[in-house]
Amino acid sequence: MTWIRTIPFSEADDELRQAMEGQKPLYPQEYAVPIHPAEGGGSLIVASHSLIPQALYHAFSTFGALMSPDLPLQRRHHEMIATMVSVTNRCVY
Known about the structure:
- With 93 residues, the protein is mainly alpha-helical.
- It has one domain.
- It is 45% helix and 0% strand.
- The chain has four helices and no strands.
- The longest helix is centred in the middle third of the chain and has 14 residues, at 53-66.
């Protein structure tokens, strides 16, 4: 497995903290507890983007917006699409 240097939330500057905290409210409540937690909290997949806070914010905010209950698909359809994308990309997330 590839190793990616990350910045733990406890060592994050203001920009990184804002990016990490700013994308969280867009996600469904079930995503609040990470499956693969990172050091200091949060998830490993989010931490893997910690070197580029703006990319972190935009990438995860996009996914959060795509999971919005205001869209015409039902939640199970959103999860099915996300699962198929992960399977196609051979990703555990």
